[in-house]
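One chain is below:
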Amino acid sequence: MRYWLLVLHEDEYAEQQAYEVESVEPEGARPEGAADGDEVALAGPEGVFALGELVGPAVVYRRRLEDPEKTDESTAADEGWTELMPDAWEDLVRSLPTPERRSDWLVTLSMPIEAVDKAEAVRLFWSYIRSLGPKELPTFVSPYGREIEGTAFLLGAEHEQDPEE
């Protein structure tokens, strides 16, 4: 088994942060010598954001981090594939935060829609949502039962909602 660091292009990284997907099929070919079952750390411009496993042309996610983690390996690497030695892999994995346990979250999105009736309002709502998508439309997330602690998220990352920002 081999260990790899895959640094995604900024656009590819943003797409992975926006949607819940089971895997990523990176642009370009797998590196020579890579095989199914190899371990992969996925990184973007801000650091390592996930761990996965090679399966065919894709990297299947095993664990995603809430916040990207800068590591020595991700800071030094260019976009694309980099093979890691086993001790470097262990150091990288050890440097990542401990996984949190799953909990319930309240995710909301509401906006005023001007329409003739309820059915038209719903159609306009979904059309508007589709046209904006996760790059432009913030959602609000809070721990279930503690809604006062809510924060705005845009593209899978916390986002300031101050109109002056």
The beta strands are 3-7, 23-24, 39-44, 47-55, 58-69, 80-84, 105-108, 139-143, 151-154, 157-158. Residues 52 and 61 are 4 Å apart (CA to CA). Helices lie at 10-18, 72-76, 86-95, 118-132.
